[in-house]
Amino acid sequence: MDEDAVDGSELPLDGDVLVLAGAKASVSPDRLPELVRRAQRHLAPRLDEYERTYETVEDDEERAVFLVPTDFWEEVGSELGLEAREADALRRAHAQQLRRIGSKADRREEFVTALEIREALVVGRDSV
User: Fold this and answer.
1) Is 119 buried (19+), middle (13-18) or exposed (0-12) by CB count in 10 A?
2) Which of 112, 124, 101 shows the shortest CA–CA distance to 37?
3) Where is the DUF8048 domain (predicted)?
């Protein structure tokens, strides 16, 4: 996978998260960064709405991370005209980013438990 394609400064998901999620997803690892970019273009304008509607679990200058309903990525996939496996790849990537944030903040168990009943949404503050 091209290192520029997973540059964390360009996407709200860390490069190693994309590599891991790409390896587990049913889409080509080279396709995942473009799916994330496409989703971010769709999601970023709704950031204010997400802040009012969903629980924020992490918020910094780079990104905001929310817990959203379990059908969230299915709906986003439908809005973007994605195949189910592409929407699932986005869901997996965002969940993996939440787990990584949880590991760094010593909150991994809390976030893994949250993912049993909700999904993760990561929105970049300076999305493409």
Assistant:
1) buried
2) 124
3) 12-125
Please enumerate, as own/partner, the contacts of 82-88 that have beta carbons within 8 Å and a separation of 24 or more. Answer: 82/35, 85/25, 85/26, 85/27, 86/27, 86/31, 86/35, 88/25, 88/26
pTM score above 0.85:
yes
Length of the chain (residues): 128
Tokens describing residue 65:
């991370």
Q: pLDDT of 42-87, one tens digit each?
A: 999 999 999 999 999 999 999 999 999 999 999 999 999 999 999 9
